[in-house]
TrEMBL record:
Cellular compartments annotated: Plastid, Chloroplast
GO CC annotations, alphabetized: chloroplast; cytoplasm
Species name: Helianthus annuus (Common sunflower)
EC top class named in words: transferase
Reactions this protein catalyses: N(1)-(5-phospho-beta-D-ribosyl)glycinamide + (6R)-10-formyltetrahydrofolate = N(2)-formyl-N(1)-(5-phospho-beta-D-ribosyl)glycinamide + (6S)-5,6,7,8-tetrahydrofolate + H(+)
Name of the protein in its database record: Phosphoribosylglycinamide formyltransferase, chloroplastic
Domain of life: Eukaryota
Length: 298
């Protein structure tokens, strides 16, 4: 993101590079307040402190990483001035998290729409749910069991045709190809049923995670949502929610308790992503700006 800033004015212009065409940029106006009460615009921008170290009064932000500033006393109404986002989802099984977020898009709690589903199992529950709701299904990868599956290059091309803004992994068990990660930087999210970095990595999925948590004697577990990199469960953590591990928990009981929180948290995070409330601190850590209180981050 490149920003042209005029320190003698309360506004700036921010050019946002698009996924679909790296040579194409969109323009936004913004302010760098809250240091002045004359801020009128309804647009938003998140500024990296390192880009403005020589500006006053933004020098005070040096040690805070990122600062997201707004007009007025709260966020704009849902969707006001913000384009509805196109979402892709990747599933390998029943897709309960996908279903939860999809219902949130239908109810209007998430300002986005699922426009395609990707799966490595054409007959899995998540894929069937997508078809029932008019969402196209793509098979990836190409294997002996799924001969109609796409290659990595074809997958990127297919998603480009759907003008995807963000990709949500919801129980997808295959490693995401590097071609896709490069095509969608900071735009692919995954949910994992433990408090990463604990109990993560290759082989840790489903009930295997909860069994390992109980066997370890850990008193707390819970879901983690993180951005995806080229390895299993090592991307930057965006959100976590604590779930107690009870003394006599079975794997099934702990899994059910964590899953309830997964459904709630994934819908909330999807809403933040679609509302453009994910802020990247100067140290590379993503945080979420509260919709109710723009001065609060989690």
């Amino acid at each position: 993101m490149d920003t042209l800033f005029n320190p003698s004015s309360t506004s700036s212009f921010t050019f946002i590079q698009t996924h679909k065409n790296p040579q194409s940029f969109s323009l936004r106006t913004c302010g760098y307040l809250p240091f002045s009460s004359q801020f009128k615009t309804q647009s938003w921008v998140c500024l990296k402190a390192q880009e403005f170290h020589n500006l006053t009064p933004l020098n005070v932000l040096k040690k805070r990483g990122l600062k997201c500033v707004s007009s007025g006393e709260g966020l704009a109404d849902e969707g006001e001035g913000i384009r509805r986002k196109n979402l892709a989802v990747f599933v390998s099984g029943g897709g309960s998290n996908f279903r939860a977020v999809h219902q949130a898009t239908v109810s209007g709690d998430v300002h986005g729409s699922f426009v395609v589903l990707v799966t490595n199992k054409h007959d899995c529950g998540g894929a069937n749910y997508a078809r029932e709701n008019g969402i196209p299904v793509i098979i990836y990868p190409n294997t002996k069991g799924e001969p109609e599956g796409l290659s990595s290059t074809d997958l990127v091309a297919a998603l480009s045709k759907y003008k995807i803004d963000f990709i949500l992994l919801a129980g997808y068990l295959k490693l995401i190809p590097s071609e896709l990660i490069r095509a969608y930087p900071k735009s692919i999210l995954n949910i994992h049923p433990s408090l990463l970095p604990a109990f993560g990595g290759k082989g840790y999925y489903g009930t295997k995670v909860h069994k390992a948590v109980i066997a370890s004697g850990a008193r707390y577990s819970g879901p983690t949502i993180h951005f995806v990199d080229e390895h299993y469960d090592t991307g930057r953590i965006l959100a976590q929610r604590i779930v107690p591990v009870l003394a006599n928990d079975t794997v099934e009981e702990l899994a059910a308790r964590v899953l309830r929180q997964e459904h709630k948290m994934y819908a909330e995070v999807a809403a933040a992503v679609c509302d453009e409330r994910v802020i990247w601190r100067e140290d590379g850590v993503p945080i979420i700006q509260s919709k109710a209180n723009p001065n609060h981050y989690s």
